[in-house]
Structure of protein-glutamate methylesterase:
Amino acid sequence: MTTFFPDRPIPQVDAVVIGASAGGLQALTVLVEGLSSRFRLPLLVVQHIPPHGSSCLVSVFQNKTKLRVKEVDEKELVSPGTLYFAAPDYHLLVEEDYCLSLSQCEAVNFSRPSIDVLFESAVDAWGERLVGILLTGASEDGAAGLEKVHWAGGLTIVQEPTEAQVATMPRAALQRFTPDFILPLREIHRLLCELECRNA
């Protein structure tokens, strides 16, 4: 099996932020299915969804993973081993004390929740101990936020555009900077497992 970090120290990771839009449900399924119940990193996700009505993301993914799955509540403290989803029509932000907050400030890149908003606030909280993952999508949301993760010293991962259901979002990131990894979904899943093992 290929080792992802043969030539440098393993980064200390405290959290993972993930952004997805069109095609994201299938992509996220590949990432979280099979993660062990011992997986301790928190996963914070913005999946672009319609602004009105309730989200089915929690019920869908609770049947796909052994992780705890929940929609974010205002001012809750980030917990390990939890898959968090942003609520419909609310930006998701991470405070410097690792509490999560919700905002109805104006849309960013035509999106609320916005991937950029999550990524940029998470950088302020975790800095170089953050992993950012950008998946399939039809907008440029997330590219600037992932670049901020990169310049803060965090680990950056972009889904291989040729595999993405909609390649606009991964390609927008690649036009801005060179991430640490450009990988198909199965390899991103394996990288998450390796990070968890090496940070245990």
Q: What stands out?
A: Helices lie at 24-32, 57-62, 115-126, 143-151, 168-176, 185-198. The chain has a mean pLDDT of 92.
